[in-house]
Amino acid sequence: MVNTQVDLCGIRLDNPVIPASGTFGYGYEFAQLYDINILGSFSFKGTTAEPRFGNPTPRIAETPGGMLNAVGLQNPGVERVITEELPRLRACFHKPVMANISGFSVEEYAHVCERLDAEEGIGWFEVNISCPNVHGGGMSFGTSPEAAARVTAAVRRVTKKPILMKLSPNVTSISEIAKACEAAGADGLSLINTLTGMRIDLCRRRPVLANRTGGLSGPAVLPVAVRMIYEVYEAVKIPIVGMGGVRSAEDVIELMLAGATAVEVGAENLVNPYACKQIIESFEPVMQQYGITSLSELTGGAH
Amino acid sequence: MTQGYYTVLENTPLTDTVWRMILKGDTTALTAPGQFVNLKIDGLYLRRPISVCDFGPDSLTLLYKTVGEGTRRMTAYAPGEKIDLLCGLGNGFDLSLSGDRPLLIGGGVGIPPLYRLAKELLEQGRTVQVILGFNTAQEIFYEDEFRALGAQVTIATADGSRGVHGFVTDAMAGLSYTYFYTCGPLPMYHAIERVVSGSGQYSFEERMGCGFGACMGCTCKTKYGNKRICKDGPVLKREEIVW
After folding, report:
1. What is the third-level CATH fold of A6-51+77-195+222-298?
2. Closest partner CB to B45 (pick from A32, A65, A74)
3. ipTM associated with this complex
């Protein structure tokens, strides 16, 4: 018998598998396929103060070993998330959920967090300061230690729940940003968001994506994620939720050995809607293969 | 939606660029003409959405045009090989609004889903008129198949090498119909909008991430709010479309 439980900022997860924001909607598309209560948790679609249509299409492009997306934070806005999405989410998911929030000003982050704070069922806030697909918000807060700290502190003031700052890989030193968030009161970090990329259509001689650039995710980014988690683990004491190209139980274990306490699965949900279920079901044989009795013992084991 | 491995029964070219693939597997998730499947093709990360041309209890037919990397790789599959498929995606056409004399307008590789639609409308006793538009006579496919169903078929070619010389809209002149259904390229839709009368349904395509409503990669604006082409579409009613 193997133990897959982990503790993330004081909340126990049955296993470390968390579908990543933007790849799992509010859960109910996947709840039609399998009982999503087998998940450790999931991070719901990034939520802003106002409704957002997002970017024009095409928003998606194929890449070697992955994909680009430039959805641009499409969401119905925090008020409709509270009145429409969360009741549907609660009907199919009965564990603490991760609320992914985003904004275009420090005040917006705090406002969205404050509005969601009293909502039943929210375990953690995952604060997205790293979306590469919007202009004037998102990633601009995640590329400077000072701005990252300001958002962290503002969110810290309005909630007692654990806050995880979601970091961008599109920086010179992710450790500096991580340390700034830790010092400003973050309870944890989640990394990596997507890497900014571009594809060009040879027939049209123009970028494939209407937004021109998009965020790269999928198996191609796994080694980048492993390196950055490894680096940040040595720079901070707070827990890390690792993500980037995870497709298998082996990938989960690799990110945990690099320093992750829990692991998010993103792009893979889109090409294999049963990915998280299959990863969870394969923990036992894979753990036995590598002589692992408890997943929680793995965190940082490669250091 | 179901996921499974489907066995290739046939994969052959019908024209220089249009191929037919027949797959054996579970089709219980297909509930309406105009739905699509999402294929995991070896060597590519994202699945590729292809509309369903026809289906039986345990097989389905896809007609696809080799336009990019995904469809080029599809041609390499041989009978007996297996493909991972998400089946029964999208809303499909609503047949209940057709009236007695529906008109089906297909342009190029938009034609395939209209085949099953014509078949079901004819089974319901409708008089089905079909306009199939191509660039040249060499590109024509499935004309005989539509005729064999019992549909009234008009061919239009842009270069005049067969049938009506011109576009599908030229072939529409003078026809009377109770309702219309169409699938084809966007410029064809704009042309249809200028001449069509009454209500109808358009089937849209867009680059998709997942194909089942999770990623918001294919969202469009409609008069009734945002819709995902993959999940709330691909078929939209004329009344709701924002052009």
Report:
1. TIM Barrel (3.20.20)
2. A65
3. 0.93
